[in-house]
Amino acid sequence: MRFKNVIFDFGGIIVDLDRQAAVDAFEALGCRVAGSIGLYAQKGVFAALETGRMADAEFFGFVRTQVGRDIPDDDIRRAWNRMLVGVPRHRLQAVLALRPRFRTFMLSNTNALHWDYVREGLPVPGDIRLEDCFERMFLSFRMHLAKPDAGIFLRVLSEAGLCPGETLFIDDSEENCRAAETLGMQVFHSRRTDDWVDFLRKEAAE
């Protein structure tokens, strides 16, 4: 095999995303965020959330200030979590199928609010846990770094004891893939839904 380790992105690779649903939900609250919420990277306060530089309470306060009225935390939380749609079972099965032969990891630009929802409320196949699929899950808000910063990749490689040349990184962001590639990692830039599933199935069969 050309690689021994696989690092998966989460959003757009494992979990389905709906950016517009989150934008619409915030605008329904009176908060315009279209320029700050992205599928591949966030801006402003959302970027601060993803690197752990802003606490949840500060974020809720920011939204209330923007709309000029009191809004319950749960309404703001629900609006933000509308971005996360669900995790199809076949994707987790595809990762699980690799584990006997490969070390598998997750590296996600995410935030505490989204991750709490992933763990507690997001539709995920009940018979497969994320912990079953990945040796370790690296999360930007805990690492205080975010892709495509080279530092986050170097930290994952170091803490997991991975050789860059033996490691495949899968992401739907071209910028993130380029950053990993400059460090000597192999990359698969996912351009359409589930193309990585077919790619890995073929690689594993060789």
**SS-based class:** alpha/beta
| CATH class designation of the largest domain | Alpha Beta
CATH fold title of the largest domain: Rossmann fold
Report the helical percentage. 40-55%
What's the quick description here?
The protein is built from eleven helices and seven strands. By secondary structure, it is α/β, with parallel strands linked by helices.
Describe what this molecule looks like in 3D:
With 206 residues, the protein is α/β, with parallel strands linked by helices. It folds into 2 domains: 5-16 and 86-205, 3-Layer(aba) Sandwich (Rossmann fold), CATH 3.40.50.1000; 19-81, DNA polymerase, domain 1 (Orthogonal Bundle), CATH 1.10.150.240. The protein is built from 11 helices and 7 strands. The strands form 2 sheets. Strands 5-4-1-6-7 form a 5-stranded parallel β-sheet. A two-stranded antiparallel ribbon has the order 2-3. The mean pLDDT is 93.
How does the SSE layout of this entry go?
Elements: E1 5-8, E2 16-17, H1 19-29, H2 44-50, H3 56-67, H4 73-81, E3 84-86, H5 89-98, E4 103-108, H6 112-120, H7 130-133, E5 136-139, H8 140-143, H9 150-160, E6 167-171, H10 174-182, E7 186-189, H11 195-205
Parallel strand pairs: 1-4, 1-6, 4-5, 6-7
Antiparallel strand pairs: 2-3
